Amino acid sequence: MLDVYSSTITCVSQNFSPPQPPPLIPPPSSPPTVSRYELQKRRDWNTFGHYLKNHKPPLILSRCSGANILEFLKYLDQFGKTKVHNCSCPFYGDPNPPAPCNCPLKQAWGSLDALIGRLRAAFEENGGRAETNPFGVRAVRLYLREVRDTQAKARGIAYEKKKRKNVKQQQYSI
Ligand SMILES: [Zn+2]
C-alpha cells in the first residue's frame, strides 16, 4: 500500500539527514520486520516503475499491456546470469558443460516466474484492479511457459523434478 512506500522513503531520508541521536526505541509508526519477500517485491516494483519512466516513449502503468510486460522481461535478460545454450552449441542440453561457450546469459525461468508473481501482487496492492492486471494475462503465462520449456531443453534440466535444487537459479538481481 502507499503508506508502506512513504515509510520506506522516510527511512531513506532519515539516513541522509544530519546526524541525530538515535532513538532508544523505534517509533511506534515503524513497520514490523519486513520479510525478504516483501522487500524484494518493493524492489521489483520500483525497478518496474523506473522501467516505465525510462521507456521511450514513457509508459503509464494503467495503460500497460501484456506486451509491455513481455518487453520488460526481455529487457531484464541483459542482467541475467544463467547460461542458456543455443541449439547450435555443442553443450546444448548438457546440464554440466565441461568448458565455457559463447551462448548468452539470460534470466533463469525460476527468477522470472517469481518476479511476475511478486509484481502481480504489487500491482494490486498499489491500487491496480485484478481484472486489468497486466502481469496476470495469458500472454505472460504463455511466455513464461515457453521460457521454461526452452531453458529446460537448452540446459538439460527438468524444472518440475528438481525444485529443491533450484536455489542457484534464484540469483537473479536487477
Ligand atoms: Zn553454449
TrEMBL record:
The terms describing its cellular component in GO are: nucleus
Q: Principal place where this protein is found?
A: nucleus
Q: Which UniProt keywords apply?
A: Developmental protein, DNA-binding, Nucleus, Transcription, Transcription regulation
Localization, per the record, is:
Nucleus
Regions of compositional bias (Pro residues) in chain numbering: 18-31
Keyword field contains DNA-binding: yes
BP-aspect Gene Ontology terms: mRNA transcription; response to light stimulus
| GO MF term list | DNA binding
Limits of the ALOG domain = 36-163
Region of interest: Disordered: 14-33
Concerning PROSITE patterns, the annotation shows:
ALOG (PS51697)
Extract the PANTHER family matched here: PROTEIN G1-LIKE2, PROTEIN LIGHT-DEPENDENT SHORT HYPOCOTYLS 4-LIKE
Q: Which family does it belong to?
A: Belongs to the plant homeotic and developmental regulators ALOG protein family.
What protein am I looking at? Protein LIGHT-DEPENDENT SHORT HYPOCOTYLS 3
Q: Which species expresses this protein natively?
A: Capsicum baccatum (Peruvian pepper)
